[in-house]
Design goal:
Elements (H helix, E strand, L loop, with lengths): L1 H20 L7 H17 L3 H11 L7 H17 L4 H12 L3
Helix pairs in contact: 1-2, 2-3, 2-4, 4-5
Protein name: Transcriptional regulator
């Protein structure tokens, strides 16, 4: 299972690099945010909740947080609570996304 999680991290990291390298007018901010949330999910599964939340915060800083991004953020929040219950950091993240209307 660790190999699958590492492959998920690698794929998400590659997708992020691709979307960040895309020139201005053809940039895809929603796809970038989704890729960042996929990376955050992999980080959560790999036991890295701090990194996951930092990555998720990057995904949620855009000025256009569409439904698909909000839904993925809610899924990540549930994943964080499943894998890292009781962490203050996770509870704080939950409050942050609620304040954003996620």
């Amino acid at each position: 299972m660790p190999r699958i999680k590492e492959r998920a991290r690698t794929a998400a990291t590659e997708a992020i690099a691709h979307y960040q390298a895309t020139p201005g007018p053809t940039r895809a901010p929603t796809r970038l945010a989704i890729a960042q949330l996929h990376l955050a999910t992999a980080q959560t599964a790999l036991g890295e909740p701090e990194a996951a939340i930092a990555t998720a915060r990057q995904a949620l800083t855009g000025d256009r947080t569409v439904q698909s991004v909000r839904g993925r953020a809610r899924e990540l929040d549930a994943h964080l609570h499943r894998h890292h219950p009781g962490l203050r950091l996770v509870r704080d993240f939950t409050e942050e996304i609620r304040a954003l209307g996620v």
